[in-house]
Amino acid sequence: MEGGLGALGESFDPGLIGRGSREDGYESRSGSENVEGASGDDQDPTAGTKSSKRKKYHRHTPYQIQELESAFKENPHPDEKARLELSRRLNLENKQVKFWFQNRRTQMKTQLERHENAILKQENDKLRIENIAMKEAISSPMCNQCGGQAILGEVHVEEHHLRLENTRLRDELNRICVLANKFLGKPISPFSGSMGNTDLELAVGRSNFDAWNVPNNDYDNRSMVMDLGFTAMNELLKLAEIGEPLWHRSVDGNGEALNIEEYDRTFRCCIGMRPPNFITEATRTTGTVLLNSMAIVETLMDANRWAEMFTGIVGRASVIDVISSNPSGSRDGSLQLMHAELQILSPLAPLHNVKFLRFCKHHAEGVWAIVDVSVDGSQPHEFQSCRMLPSGCIVQDLQNGYSKVLWIQHMEYDESMVHNFLKPLIRSGVGLGAQRWLATLQRQCECLAVIMSPSIPSAESSVISPGGRRSIVQLAQRMTRSFCAVVCANMYRWDPIQTGNGNDPAAVRLSMRKSQGEPGEPPGVVLSATKTIWLPITRLRLFDFLRSEETRNQWDVLSNGALQQMIHISKGQTDPANRISIYRNTASASVNQNSMLMLQESCTDVSGSIITYASVGAQEMTLVMNGGDSSCVALLPSGFSIVSDCFNNTGWLDDSKGAPSIEGNDSNGSLLTVGFQMLVSSSPGAKLTLESVETVNALISRMVLDIKAAFLCN
Predict the structure, then answer these.
(1) Gap between the Cα atoms of 116 and 205, Å rounded
(2) In angstroms, how far is CA 530 from the centroid of its own chain?
(3) What residues does the START domain cover (predicted)?
(4) Which of 229, 459, 533, 668 has CB 3.0 to 4.6 Å from 359, enough for a Cys bridge?
(5) 175 and 119 in one domain?
(6) d(C-alpha 599, C-alpha 434), whole Å
(7) Quick check: helix, strand or coil at residue 44?
(8) pLDDT tens-digit readout, 201-245
């Protein structure tokens, strides 16, 4: 993002954000000299003159000062163990170390107050100068055209503008005072006058962050959260601007991987040290998206729309708390605490529950940045299997409704929770890397543009109306979301059924749930079976085989004859395989109200492919095709998820590259996840029988064997 990042750098001043950047610039002075016996906070006033005569001053050596300063930057509040270690290493008494840190913290607070007061004084002087200029303009108004005295009407207009400007400045100054009150913990009043009510953004001091909307309670935690948001945004911008050696090109040339050693030298982790057994997945990629920047921002800041946009990656998402919002209604400066379930479509992959901050910033005309950073693990009892370091995207408007998006995904996983079968996928960055996020966004935006377009392709116009197209698309999207939930078991209360070794990647994972007949679901006992296998077949070849109606009878154990396509809806122009199809069985002479149709959606991009299908009654499908409500159509979807295996020719990931190995390079195989559902009883109160379990297990096993046989894979 050449032009966008340049403008972004000019409009964004990292020095104005975060408390840490100010602290690093202070020098140590008063903490260099210690009075033996007590600090200013701990002196006993009753000690008398005699004790004061015994006080001795010890000036620390430059080496001691340097070491103490380094320790202070790491932790300004060391515990007893840390102080003892410092005193032993620096040949100081424990009290000397304790009092040095107390004096240093006092000095830091004093310097911060001076800094804030200087800002307030500058704004006060600026406002007074504006007032003087306004008074002079009112007392002797001049006409800009002729140079003579202005008439009364012109004086009124000029006075009105000056009063508006004065109100704006007063409003900004009062808002700075509110912000200073929060950080300093004591009231600061610039001069008499109440706060203005204009919906203006904070333009001086700490960016336009909406601190005045923060509730009065829990100021300390809120200020820490806001500082974390600013720090994460600052890091995201630097990660976007810096090239080599921090980033190096991946093998396929479609993205970049992070140099972890260079990152550790360049940045200080804002959420603490990497936990044991955690590995890093950090990737960066750039591409164009068929959506303008504001629409992308609104989608990302809305939890429901975000989850719908990234079906297959985001299982569930919610906003826990809106910490800051812009009073004008803009997303600029919005900071919210969110929760999400991130998923890889395989029963062998764990769900990643993350609690994170999402901060949105408008940097220049048509340039937005959104950053995520984890806040998991803040409490001792909290367990985290995944955490997000500053990740997100920078969006720049282009012509014709397109946007240029730079996506950075920097995550750490507990590798001990990842099955060995999927470790190459995680390590490569294909699992939840930047390429998968951006590819999904591109595909979904292209689908949205095609579906919402008033023009309908000639192959579809005579069959289905625009309203019917939208209803079918909504039904297909719900079917795919439901399939992803089945594979990851993250949307419903599934009860696992143990039938063998759960650590065996060849084992079938069986689960059951009881549906009470919620809208969009058939009532009864539902049994699901999922399994992930490896095939020495390229992803695209396997995808074409499974989505084609001509080869379906080779693997679909429940098919009764060949299928014939009735209609199809294209979801984009980039790849014709992205489509929704409705099939009928050729064994039926005609479609009647009692016959069943097959709804299928196929999605593919550079990161992977998904095929989902479900049986739908002909009567229900007719209503949907006529533009009816699709939310009440009951579905039990099954399907496939396909990704490149990320193995090299030796059977494991080439760690020396440290970058994704996408299909077309070393990867000649695929990881295929099969998901299958069956309604074993229409009564929610029925008990699951062993016969039903054996039937479903046999069906999915037969399906896997037939797929292998079609490619002559033993």
Answers:
(1) 9
(2) 27
(3) 218-450
(4) 229
(5) yes
(6) 31
(7) coil
(8) 323 233 333 333 333 344 456 778 888 888 899 999 999 988 888
How does pLDDT run across 632-674, given as a tens digit for each residue? 888 999 999 999 887 653 333 333 333 333 333 445 788 999 9
Tell whether 442 is covered by a domain.
yes
Alpha-carbon distance of 146 to 156, in angstroms, equals 18
Task: Give the rounded distance of the alpha carbon of 557 from its chain centre.
Answer: 40
Asked if residue 480 and residue 413 are part of one domain, the reply reads no
Residue 289, strand partner residues = 403
Q: Is residue 2 part of a domain?
A: no
Query: Residue 196 — pLDDT band, cuts 50, 70, 90?
Result: very low
Are residue 501 and residue 647 in the same domain, yes or no? yes
Q: What is the CATH number of the domain that holds 35?
A: 1.10.10.60
**Amino acid letter, residue 714:** N
Please identify which residue in the block is written with the tokens 């993205």: 255
Q: What distance in Å separates the CA atoms of residue 668 and residue 658, rounded to the nearest whole number?
A: 19
Split into its structural domains, the chain has a count of 3
DSSP letter (8 states) at residue 27? P
Which residue's entry shows tokens 């009753």? 46
- CA proximity to 387, closest of 397, 379, 376, 401: 376
Q: Supply the pLDDT for residue 611.
A: 95
Residues 527 and 641 in one domain: yes
Residue 690 phi, psi (nearest 5): -65, -35
The candidate with the shortest Cα–Cα distance to 476, out of 575, 613, 591, 312, is: 613
Do 491 and 432 lie in a common domain?
A: no
Residue 43's contacts (CB-CB under 8 Å, 6 or more residues apart) are: none
Alpha-carbon distances, residue 519 vs 630, 634, 635 (angstroms): 10, 7, 10
368 exposure class (CB count in 10 Å sphere: 0-12, 13-18, 19+): buried
Res 404 pLDDT > 90: yes
On whether both 438 and 486 belong to a single domain, the answer is no
Domain assignment of residue 364, yes or no: yes
Helices (H), 371-465: 423-428, 434-452, 458-461
Q: How far apart are the C-alpha atoms of 38 and 25, rounded to whole Å?
A: 28
608-617 and 638-644: which strand pairing? antiparallel
Neighbours of 275 (CB within 10 A): 12
Query: 543 and 687: one domain?
Result: yes
Q: Would you say residue 458 lies in a domain?
A: no
Neighbours of 382 (CB within 10 A): 10
**Domain of 640?**
464-710
**Domain finish residue from 386, 419, 447:** 447
